[in-house]
Amino acid sequence: MFGSGLAGKPIEAIHGRYGLYALADLALARWGDPAEKRHLGAFAAFVAAPDQRINQMPYFFDAGFVAYGLFPSRPRDFAGFGVAYGSYSSHLRRAEENQALTNPSARVQDWEMTLEWTYGCTVRPGLLVQPSLQYIVNPGGAKSVSNALVMGLNFVFNF
């Protein structure tokens, strides 16, 4: 419980946590040599851990598209776009609102969303370089925090 252990309240133990998820991944269109596996794919996932008394983010959803082998000269590369959305617990929000009554700098979390664009460049077999650009709306779930633009770079080594 989110108010547990605050303002002299005893810490409560919770038992019986559970969650559910659904995941879909589908090839929408194929092109080029079938051996190269070039195609446009779509994905989506929904995660629920609905006990809002104990789960900080009880509902989470993401979806997007990935084009594999978009360019004939780069059959192992991929380009993708995705969106992720999470909703914070109403119990957490109430606990944070109560804390904000005595601490004006306390933030109240509501929801957060990320839009991501990425490109995976296969430099050689076993080495992938993947730049990404993300736009985060309500970072940390707090409307008091400005939206953020994030650039990242992943190096993936498979051996």
Describe what is shown at a glance.
This protein has 159 residues and is mostly beta strands.
**Total DSSP E strands:** 7
So, the CATH homologous superfamily? Carbohydrate-selective porin OprB
Widest beta sheet: strand line-up: 1-2-3-4-5-6-7
Rounded average pLDDT: 89
Sketch the topology as an H/E string, one letter per element.
EEEEHEEE
Q: Which value, in Å, is the CA radius of gyration?
A: 21 Å
Unreliable residue stretches: none
Distance between the termini: 44 Å
Helicity, as a percent range: under 10%
Which architecture per CATH? Beta Barrel
Word description of this protein:
This protein has 159 residues and is mainly beta. It has one domain (20-157): Beta Barrel (Porin). Helix content is 8%, strand content 48%. It is built from 1 helix and 7 strands, in the order ββββαβββ. The protein has a 7-stranded antiparallel sheet, with no helix packed on it. The N and C termini lie far apart (44 Å). The model has no long low-confidence stretch (mean pLDDT 89).
Keywords:
159 residues; mainly beta; seven-stranded antiparallel β-sheet; 8% helix
Give the topology, please.
Blueprint: E1 20-30, E2 39-48, E3 59-68, E4 78-87, H1 90-102, E5 111-124, E6 127-137, E7 148-157
Antiparallel strand pairs: 1-2, 2-3, 3-4, 4-5, 5-6, 6-7
